[in-house]
Amino acid sequence: MEDYEEEKSAPQSQNYEENKEGSNESEANNLQDEYDDAEGDYEHGEGVNALNLEYVRGYNKDIKDGVHNLTNGERKAIFYSAAHTGVIYDYEEGEQKLLQGHCNQITCTACSADKTLIVTADSGIDSMLVIWNSYDGIPIRTYFNPYENGICNLDISQDGRYLATISDDEFQSVSIWDLQNEELDEPLITTLCTYARDDRQHLIKFNPSDIYELVCHGKNHLAFLSWSEDSEEMEYYLSPIQSSSYSKKEKQKASFTSTVFVPDSTKAVTSTDKGDLLVWDISLIVDGMSHTNEKRLTKVLELHQDETAINTLTIHGDYIITGNEDGSVRFYDFDLKICGWFENLDLGRIKSISFADEEPPSARHDEDEEENELKCADFIVADSNAVICKLESRLFEELEPDQKKGEVIFTGLKSAINCIAVHPHESILAIGGKSGFLINWNYLTKEEEYKQLKEEPCAIEYSPDGKYLMGGTADGLIRIYDPYNNMAEMQAPCKTSERSNHAIKQLIVSNDSEHFATMDVNTCVCLFKRDHKYGDPNEPIEWVFYGKVKCHEIEITSIAFGESLDSNDEIQLRLFSIGKDRVLFEYDVSKSSEKNGLVIDNSKTMMIEQENVPTACIWYPTIDSKEDLLLTVNDVYKMKIWNVKSSQCRKTCLGPTYGGDISRLKKLEIDGNPDKFLAYSTFEKVIGLIKLPLDGNPTKTMGLIAHPNQVKDMCVSSDGKYLFTCGGVDLCVNKWSIDVTPIDNAIMMGGEGIEPFINLIEGGRDGQTFQDMKDFFYYSMVKSKTEGEDTTKTRKLDGKVSINQLGNLMRAMGHYPTLKEIENMVNEVEFAHFSENCEKVDRFGLDTFVKLFVNHRPVFGIGRPHIEKAFNTLFVDNKDKKPLAKVPRESFLQELASEGEPLMNQELGNLLDKLVGKSNIKEALGEEIWPETFAKDILSFEEVEEDEDDQEENYDPAMEGVTPDGTFDHNVIPEENFD
């Protein structure tokens, strides 16, 4: 395999952190150089990013034949995939080498016969096919976008030179790749699977004795394919299977599960989900419809009378090995006579069987029976319960059942993960799963305790003092566990109501460990406190349910505790909730009790968004601030800081623009580092860090792909060393080490003052947009002087403009904020230094204007589709509830005058005069208004190309910043429509 060592091609970068200029093409060309620079750090286990994947708990247990035994005389290791990461696991040392690069969940893997090469592939947008060195985990070769939607199965030839793949597209195809041809980045040959349009093909295998022959099949159609390096298409032939071929028990309904070629023969064997083995061979009878070299079904063996499925087949030495539905493994010779069996292994459905690259040891010591003994190398089996077990051939001869079990070397997670929580003082991570499990995992020693619960945990959280673990279930119950006593329950379950069956979505605990709050799927907030039952001091102290309130009209998105000082300088606990109804509620914790219930502070209720949806909130961690601040984020990448006493917005900042909406925020305080950070996760894929204080500087944020799909939960260790994430259905928990040095370096490289913000403006410092900003600002500064703009007198300019000009300046730049948004901008400037010196500001400079423009303008421009969507939302037929194709003028005017910020007829007339030259509303609008004509003729929105419409409709925020060549454009902010 020396030919492979010279060639290295880095897989797709997952990191959004670095800030780069230039085209996407140049960025793609620099991928190799970036990887080479970082290669030494990877080899020594050192991170080059602010977040570095250090360990993965769990694996993709549902991939058939997805666990490979790499054990030989030099190592004891296995390979498996975990979400979108490949893992080489040394089960003797307990160490992992992580193969990173895929953006989507890995769908199939393969290993070369000599165990030196590993192949991984995924399916989805920007899919990849990567060839890895199995010893050092370095990528040897990478194919970007091998098919439109990736790969669903693959196999590597016996000599390790060729790769066969099946696409995961709607119309599947089979391809052969030459791994040693450095100049060829596409398949040697590709053929459409026209023979099985109605049957998804899920398996492909090389003939180990003839690399030019393969088998490919789905559940019902099986084809043998042949190819040559000179041909343009593969030849294939189907063997007709008659229903009478399956003898009993309606075997004609059986589905193919796996196929192997018998070495040094013309035979192939296929297994079914009814427990049969089908033997294919060259037929000696030529019927005029086939050729003599075509394989035909020659034999059907009913191995399992009870129709137990045979899930997987493999070849080792002189044996065909079956992995079965009942957890058994059986060995057959090439004549399909039973030679050995491993049963009662306490395993689920066998998913993978893989043998070590070692000489088979003898199972017996009796020379007279040496010819009949079972000889095989040690092997591993993986089952549907995520258990990976090592077995030895000698176990077949053991008489005691307990001696036949084998050795469990790795256990994954068998069901979707709902929630995680890290202990504040111990290196313990609690993991709660859909099947009702709760695992205490020591993330340093890798030891764990498993507990099966009665209900499914949906949200868990440790108290800051570490004495309690609170768990909210899918049935709306609250259970309190003892972390130091094997998670024993410390009291009877707390009920949020007698008939509550609404799952808990989020659970938070106060800093004093005396309160915790929950929110559920029924838009209710609950409060609990450690107190005497019924307020009776004679009763023992326990967690008492204080009350439950349903104040939001629709889904709650986040809750948060806060702390402020009251008039007596005593800490006052505060509780907040935000929802998709765009309302922020505060609850009066001091007045709440078991008797009074949870009390809402109506004086603090406020609408925090006009048209966008708040998605997460957290008490804003500040140093020596004189204000009580709450941070909220919304679904258009904006972060807002609110003074909860005055109900005013103190700052609006551009948040991370990659990965979609932020769903979770966690405070990050690092031991020995005075700086404060926030950790965040989005609904899908991305996690990252933000350095405080917030100001919209893009160099203060980073993000990377943590999971291929949903980021189900996230938590941070109290010392700030580790961040943990779980991906839900990908069955994996990721442990990330934190090093904020790259963020500090990025801030330094990004420049001081407004330099990082200017880089986010189209054209940068030399572009027309920035030149217009300066012109408008200077003109406004001149106009604001008492001398006016038409004087010839000498003016004294101080470089600042009055805050009452903010709205005009923004509109001059093509951003048309609402009155509320202008009020927020004015408050931001006016109170910019209020927390420091309690003084207000009434004028601002150019630097402030640039920051305000970048932070407040919408990330995405408004086009005709947005106008049409607004019409469809506002104007609906009362009978069938369908959007009106055309809207009566009076209905239109009524909505403008009553919804949002009212727009009266006089003001509307002035606007129409500027837009279309007609101040008469009837003439300008007509009797009926069509959404398309309103956008085109009134607002003068330009026509949008059809492909742009499709792009808008299919926009995936989780892939924001991903370029067509499979690389990332860091800190992307799409251009805005300023027309």
UniProtKB/TrEMBL annotation:
Q: Where is the composition biased (Acidic residues)?
A: 944-955
The record's InterPro entries line, in alphabetical order, gives: EF-hand-dom_pair, WD40/YVTN_repeat-like_dom_sf, WD40_repeat_dom_sf, WD40_rpt, WD_repeat_EMAP
Q: Does the keyword Repeat apply?
A: yes
One matching Pfam family: WD40
Q: Where in the cell is it found?
A: Cell projection, Cilium
Q: Which PROSITE patterns match?
A: WD_REPEATS_2 (PS50082)
Q: Where are the WD repeats?
A: 459-482
Recorded GO CC terms: motile cilium
Q: What is this protein called?
A: Cilia- and flagella-associated protein 251
Primary location group: other
This protein's record includes keyword Metal-binding = no
> What ranges does the record give for the region Disordered, renumbered to this chain?
1-44, 944-979
Native organism? Euplotes crassus
Keywords, A to Z?
Cell projection, Repeat, WD repeat
